[in-house]
Task: inverse folding
């Protein structure tokens, strides 16, 4: 298991330390054990979990390095992907991991304590309920993997990001959601600067990362109250 993880990280071309690998392995082992009695993810096979969760999350690492951000938020993090994996790999960055499902945030809090991660804050909330004057436009980087369509998640995410900050949205190839997001981007003060295409290192599945730059401050009426963005996307 450890060897498979290290091999994948090498294929992505990332530098690593023994501590980072050990923490990822502990996280993986705990995920597999916890998932046996509490449904956190549909992926049960350990190799599949390494490839489709851990290595998939690490496809973002080079972009994280490039942006040199100090504070990131992962909305709809689930069992911690990509946020928890990136928090382990970036101990000098602060990560807020948010999910509205209590069993998932309980698991993440356990992982934080198991690994003594001082750079992680776990939040059990909806984005619309969590945002306030102190955390609005306070994050350098936004993260989200596959939660809702792009035009929906933009309304949750962009209000949290600083002007000149970035949202790195992970998407499956072929969804073609970018075209539907034009109005949301314009309304929220953001633009797509590049669509990065990656492949999982062993399985070869294609992944997209939509790199979005926040150009100007977002009107404080966004995000709208809970549930509205999903029912009436921008």
Result:
């Amino acid at each position: 298991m450890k060897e498979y993880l290290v091999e994948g990280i090498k294929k992505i071309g990332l530098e690593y330390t023994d501590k980072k690998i050990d923490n990822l392995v502990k996280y993986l082992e705990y995920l597999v054990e916890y998932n046996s009695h509490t449904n956190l993810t549909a992926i049960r096979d350990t190799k599949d979990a390494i490839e489709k969760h851990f290595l998939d999350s690490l496809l973002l690492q080079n972009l994280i390095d490039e942006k040199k951000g100090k504070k990131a938020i992962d909305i709809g993090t689930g069992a911690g992907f990509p946020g928890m994996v990136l928090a382990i790999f970036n101990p000098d960055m602060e990560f807020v991991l948010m999910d509205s499902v209590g069993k998932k945030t309980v698991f993440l809090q356990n992982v934080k304590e198991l690994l003594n991660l001082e750079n992680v804050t776990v939040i059990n909330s909806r984005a619309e309920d969590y945002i306030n004057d102190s955390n609005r436009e306070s994050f350098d980087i936004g993260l989200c993997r596959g939660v809702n369509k792009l035009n929906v998640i933009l309304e949750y995410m962009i209000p949290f990001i600083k002007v000149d900050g970035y949202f790195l949205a992970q998407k499956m190839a072929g969804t073609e959601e970018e075209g539907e997001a034009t109005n949301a981007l314009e309304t929220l003060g953001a633009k797509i600067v590049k669509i990065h295409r990656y492949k999982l290192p062993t399985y070869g599945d294609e992944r997209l990362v939509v790199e979005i730059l926040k150009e100007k401050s977002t009107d404080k009426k966004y995000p709208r109250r809970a549930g509205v963005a999903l029912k009436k996307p921008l």
